Amino acid sequence: MSDARHERAWAIGILAALAALALLPLAVRRDDVLNFVFLVLLSITLAQSWNVVAGYAGQVNLGHAAFFGLGALLARRLWIGGAPIVAAMAAGAALAAAFALVIGAPAFRLRGAYFAIGTLALGEILRTTVGNVLPEISTLPAATIAGYRLTDRYYMALALAALSVLAVATLAGSRAGLGMQAIREDEAAAEASGVGALRLKLTALALSTALAGLAGGLFGYYHISYYPAHAFNPTWTFDALLMTYIGGVGTLHGPVLGAVLYVVLKEYLAVRWVDFHLLIFGALFVAIVLLLPGGLVQAVERVRRRPAGPSGR
Amino acid sequence: MSILAQQLLLGLLIGGLYGLAAAGLSLVFGVMKVLDVAHGELIMLGGYGAFFAVGLLGLDPFASLALVIPGALLLGVVLYLGLFGFVVRADEETRVKNSLLIGFGLALALHALAVRLWTADERSIVTPYGGAVLTLGELTIPLVRLLSLLLALLLIGGLHLLLARWRWGKAIRATAEDWQAALLTGIDVRRAYLLAFALGTALAGAAGTLVSVGYSVSPSIGLEWTLKALIVVVLAGLGSMLGTFVGGLVLGVAEAASAAAFGGPYREVVGLVIFVVVLVARPRGLFGK
């Protein structure tokens, strides 16, 4: 089966599963179940957003949390100020993407690991500054809390997860997406064969950060109160990176599977040991980088293809 | 005026630790082209090592270096054989990227492990002479921090001598310069890598000890110290350990100056801004040749 057809089959399968989840609030009235699935959906969006720039364009962005945070900040402000939530989230996404384009040109002067540590520092600058400027906790107005309905958040998360999967599926088969993958494999060779590397990297970054901004907006819409700097915490970046790599970086379904696995194990372990999941996922991640660069998706693929003889790798 | 001078002095004192923290990272990166972003977590482990050496064995905190440094050397050997030794087989670009990712996973795991074992509380070593100060005109100098600065300088000076005079020190430098040429002259490059990584980890352990004496450790200090070390490495460039020490002092003073100018919470920002600006202005100049 060719890769493109393979990916399309996965896209259809994942979207069908998400469509089925739309019926969940009708069948189950338990808030804990809906909250749990909400977290999975938010994580899928976050992982998929990171996957665009890191998985397809090959640029490891360690400042991803900054864009999540910007989206959360603006969307929540506008929404509490009276704007419709969809418009507020779109504005948050636009701010995140605009900021990405401003820093993108200088940041992409850095290659590989230098881009990674440069963006890590940028994210920390933003987090510290937001923490200093907005030290107060942000709480929804009493009237909003009284009218809070979990199902609204749930359907918003569902829509965003579907959007992120659709965006990546569309990108993967497009001319731009193929160009990004060429850059990921060998930037100099891609440029030599006529791919405009900087323009495509900026496109990838803008799309990635817009999705991250939307995910951030969803976070701001979901939580009753949190410190604004929390949405800029580097753990959002680290979560996205772990989910994406463990599932399979640069594939459509890898980050989705990674996100499901990550949230399930995290919530399960959190009952007894807070943050213990990071020990397991940190170690798993190291093992994957060393032994299995394609993540769990690749592992499954290898097992499946073995009877048919050795694969291309 | 004297308040400002006092702040700058304290900045200078912590700057020595920044230099020591960066020295290990600089050595590992310069020699192996391995960017170990778990360096801050190694510092954190060193801090806990000293904390328990003092608490359980009743050692003097500075004397605990005699235990922490060999322990960290050993840890470095284990980490090299178990993890980073696999990375150096790849070409340079993959090496930097994979080591970054591995260091990152290691950092997360060590952080979670530290929380699990020792809780998330901040700890610092209490000494009988912890409150002692020297007075110099209107300035007060905490004795422990001054000793830390001097020890940091001593350790970096020692490393400098080791690299300059010792047979294997020269091999490490030759490997940093050009590993292929080093290989051709009969140097065991893998062993030079192993030694450099072990020495880098030992420096992290020593830095952690001094951090837990003069300041405090908690499982979450890792990222902060990794960033400090990265900033200093970018400021000072690779190749000169004494230059790295001076870079640390510069960062410490710059932080203190910006805290005085913009308020305490911004002290972290100035170093990061310097880092990003220098990195973007000279994307390859500082790390590469």
Give an overview in words.
The complex is a heterodimer of chains A (313) and B (289). The longest helix of chain A has 26 residues, at 31-56. Chain A has helices spanning 3-21, 24-27, 31-56, 64-80, 85-107, 112-133, 142-146, 150-173, 175-185, 187-192, 197-222, 235-247, 254-270, 276-291, 295-305; strands spanning 138-139, 225-226. A two-stranded antiparallel ribbon of chain A has the order 1-2. Mean pLDDT of chain A is 89; it is low at 309-313. Chain A is globular and about 60 Å long. Helices cover 77% and strands 1% of the residues of chain A. With 313 residues, chain A is mainly alpha-helical. In chain B, 53% of the residues are buried. Chain B has a two-stranded antiparallel sheet. Chain B is an all-alpha fold and 289 residues long. The mean pLDDT of chain B is 88. In chain B, α6 crosses α8 (189-214). Chain B has eleven helices and two strands. In chain B, a hairpin with a 2-residue loop joins β1 (133-136) and β2. The longest helix of chain B has 31 residues, at 2-32. Chains A and B meet through α6, α12 and α14 of A and α3, α4, α9 and α11 of B.
* Poorly predicted sequence stretches spanning 5 or more consecutive residues of chain A: 309-313
Strand order of the largest sheet of chain B: 1-2
* Percent in strands of chain B: under 5%
Helix % of chain A is over 70%
- The Cα radius of gyration of chain B reads 19 Å
Shape of chain B: globular
Structural class of the secondary structure composition of chain B?
A: mainly alpha
How many angstroms does the end-to-end distance of chain B come to? 42 Å
Q: How many helical stretches of chain A?
A: 15
What is the CA-atom radius of gyration of chain A, in angstroms?
Answer: 19 Å
Order of strands, widest sheet of chain A = 1-2
Portion of residues in beta strands of chain A equals: under 5%
Give the oligomeric state. heterodimer
Q: Considering residues with a beta carbon less than 8 A from a beta carbon on another chain, report the largest interface and each chain's count.
A: A-B, 41 and 42 residues
Largest sheet of chain A: 2 strands, antiparallel
